[in-house]
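step=predict obj=DUF11 domain-containing protein n=429
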Amino acid sequence: MIRKILLAAAAGILLVGAAGGAFAEQAPPPDPATIPVPVFDYDTDPAKALVARVRFDSRTQAHVLSTTVSTQRARGHSGEPPILRLRLTDVDGAELDRINAWSPLWRLDGGPNGSKGIRPNGTGNFIVPFSPSLAAMTVTDVRLNQQVVTVDLAAPIRTFCKDNPADPDCRESDLSVTAVEPSAPLFGVLGQPITVTVASTVANGGSDGPSDARVRREVSAGGGLTIGDAAPVTTDVPVAVGTPQRLTRTYTVTCTQPGTATLTATTRVAPKLPTVVDAVPGNDVRSATLPVTCAVPATVNIKPGSAENIVNINPGVLPVGVLSTGAGEYGNPVAIDATTIDWSTLRLGSPSRILAGLGAREKHGRIHTENVQEPDDRTRDGDTDAMLHFDPISDAFQVGDTSGCVYGRVRVAGAMVAFYGCDRVVVRP
């Protein structure tokens, strides 16, 4: 009987620990006399096995001492009583198998009937067959229905494959992030969301493939920007050798202060399965920084004094007023002194033309400072505003446009920043 116990311990569950002492149990265990001695099957399991050495401080508290891959044949599990249950899961958390296991707290003493008892603590080995899909093992006390410890099995598998690349269960793929390309509109206006798109490209340089890659994408914003949906996103994608995969994601970004802000996009790639070894980890991460121009909103009056704002697409001069406003006036969050506008930066056009970097330039090569009529086209508030003049035939509008907008730069708090404002128009040929 003692020989059988030693064989059992050597084969799988090493029943060692402190002998004697008071038991620190949360619930009475089953009667030891009712638990049969396990019967081991040495002939059915594969040659490789995962071995987790676990220290039990009580029935409900344990910690992992070590994990490794053994190339010796694993023992079988037939006949083991349900003292502990081993739940084996893959990298996605899906259950692969459930196995009953003996507990290192249950000692087997010599004697004609193999007398049994319970220790207050102990250390044992849990051995399960090797599988390329394995990632974790959760140990649960069946009687208490309480999880005791979770064992990371992906790490020892990854180490084994790194050290044994020729093993038939192991593969090698040079996964890499080859490009991170964020893009945004020409500018954003304070308080008005814009869409930023990030395109990431991952590749597999071989030698094995295709391999499932786990791609993590994240963005962060500097001062002056907020991101409404910045939580990192992880995507699994198969990547064949020589066939890069391109992934895109959009983010809602809002400017909170004028000037130029920055957004940083980072993409990381790693093998999904622990049996896939990435031979060149130095190319697994790539970042790119995107400057975002944050414009202050401005109040614009096209054709001051005209309620219809009819714009004819023909050579001529279209007067446009940009008003000096205080913070909060017309809903503008930032005060603007229109007399500080840089005329050389000005563009007039429909919103789509302005965002495309197009539009008509200021025709007179200067701004005219005067008290421009307010948007009601009747009153003047006494401020000194900017009157501008554009040639509407110069790539500004097309028939059917309903908005005319001015984009340029103005001095705010000592710095030149972008501004943007629109007024309604009726565009005719």
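step=describe
Residues 172-293 form a domain with the Immunoglobulin-like fold (CATH 2.60.40.10).
step=end
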